[in-house]
Amino acid sequence: MSQTSTLSVTRKALVSAAAGLLVLLFLPTSQVLVSDQISITLIWSMIFPMIIAAAWGPRWGALSGLCGGVFYPFLAWPQNGWAALLPSGIYLIFLVTIGMASQRPSLQKHRFGQIIALALSFLVYLSLMWPLYTHLFNPLLGLNAQHWKAPADTFFEPSLIALLCFKNAISVGTLCLMADLCLRIRSIRKFLALPALAGSRSNGLIFLSSIAATLTIWSLFITLDKRFDLWEEPNGTSYQILAFWILLVSGCGSARIICSVLERRYASESDLERSRRALQESSKKLQSLNRTLTETNHRLEKEKKRAEAAERLKSIFLMNLHHELRTPLNAINGFAQLLKTENARGADAKQYVDKIERGTNRFLTMIDRITQIAQIHAGETEVKVAQVDVEALLQRVKTLPSAKIQSGGVELHLPPDWTGKSLVTDCSKLEIVLDRLLESAGDAAEGKPVRLIPSWQDENRLTITIEYSGTLIDKATPSSYQTSSVEIGGLDIGLAIAQTYVQILGGQIDNVASPDKGSRIVVTIPNQEALPQSPSF
């Protein structure tokens, strides 16, 4: 139950003063129930200051009362004279109590905080009314002057004072019930700039329906009374008003119960809706988390397979490395042992020394290639871009002493439309790539010549084709080798370096092998200033 209003102080003051004046304005329309000794008056317009006090607090309730709300006893019962000050003071305290109770934070947060605040104020009203009326009412009556405009009363019997307390309790209790119901109507809360209550959309209609039902039943009651003379004068009118009071209180009580039931139902539906939305959000989050976990699992599974493949390939690589290193070392060691014999003289000794030299060169080349692979793996490969004379580079590569190229040699075939153009790339790495590929191709050619054919796909892309007879064995297939996972698969170290350097230069290698028609390796290198970052094993 939030009672925080956003109206300005000036508007609150004007509305509070108007509410107090309305009490005096509508005083003649009050319902009076006359019994043998006393009249019970329902000053229904007193509901306006009560609503102001409950909505805005004690000072605005006091202002509304002082502007006319608490002075109605002087007009309703002029014969009481100075004794009218007593109910006026009690009503003023009652309005202040309503404002103080309604503004308590603990009650504002409570579902039934408003009715509890009015009930507490009603109890304070009852606790003040009985002792004050008993001890002060008659002394105040004694102060009335003999020339009072209306015939002044000077003394009430204790039983009559008890009836006064009883009739005031009935009136104020009825007003508390009506005020609580009015404060639950959305249009009234909007006028007072109070936040709307959850589920209060139908409260106004329920209130009007209860009033309409009360008036309808009461009209039917009056019609039947006049038609069949159920009660004759002088008490007939009193019975009719009593019936109206009973119907009004019953209607307001029923409306209040219906409003509470609907509000609670709306609150339950709202809680269910919030729970449903929260459940949907949780479900979406769980689905998203499940997708994320599934993707992560797939990614981890791929990484696991890649790691397992890399581990297997590492083992294969180490075995091949062991073979590649032992071969030249065995040659060096074997021919060195032969030189120690007495028969190693002249031409034989020179032949042994040549083979030792070739084995040593092969061993040094292997060490150099292992160093290059280590640099690639560590990401320390530097790319030095410069203008490269392609024809000069091919002529130089053609004469390199590749250990695996046998007597067939390398033949450079320039196309008829060849023009001496330069390429922007790393010259040393491109030379290493061609040297390694020519090595493998010459080894597969088995003594037949290897053809080196350059061509330009366009102005910015150079293609170098290496043609040879026979086919590279499976371990010498560059297209089956990926530097990202070091899928060496038995491939020698030279081809591994060649494939990696081509990728560093932004190009690619394609291998087409045919047992009958020979094979060719196609290397494509782009002409560019900026090159991609070096991939690592």
Architecture overview:
With 537 residues, the protein is an alpha+beta fold. The chain folds into three domains: 1-195, Arp2/3 complex 21 kDa subunit ARPC3 (Orthogonal Bundle), CATH 1.10.1760.20; 296-374, Helix Hairpins (Orthogonal Bundle), CATH 1.10.287; 382-526, Histidine kinase-like ATPase, C-terminal domain (Heat Shock Protein 90). The strands form three sheets. A five-stranded mixed beta sheet has the order 4-6-7-9-8. The chain has a two-stranded antiparallel ribbon with strand order 1-2. The chain has a two-stranded antiparallel sheet with strand order 3-5. The longest helix is centred in the middle third of the chain and has 105 residues, at 236-340. The protein is built from 15 helices and nine strands. The chain has helices at 9-25, 47-56, 58-66, 72-76, 85-102, 105-108, 113-141, 158-182, 186-191, 203-228, 236-340, 347-378, 390-398, 427-445, 493-504; strands spanning 31-34, 39-42, 386-389, 410-412, 422-425, 450-458, 461-468, 508-514, 518-526.
Number of strands: 9
Unreliable runs, pLDDT <50, ≥5 residues?
473-491, 530-537
How confident is the prediction overall: mean pLDDT? Answer: 76
| % residues in beta strands | 5-15%
Class from helix and strand fractions: alpha+beta
For the CA atoms, what is the radius of gyration?
55 Å
Q: Distance N terminus to C terminus?
A: 69 Å
**Tally of distinct domains:** 3
What topology, given as strand order, has the largest sheet?
A: 4-6-7-9-8
Number of helices: 15
The helix fraction, in percent, is 55-70%
Name the shape in a single word: rod-shaped
CATH architecture of the largest domain: Orthogonal Bundle
Oligomeric form of this entry?
single chain
- Major sheet description: 5 strands, mixed
CATH class of the largest domain: Mainly Alpha
The succession of helices and strands, N to C, reads: HEEHHHHHHHHHHHEHEEHEEHEE
Write down the CATH topology of the largest domain.
Arp2/3 complex 21 kDa subunit ARPC3
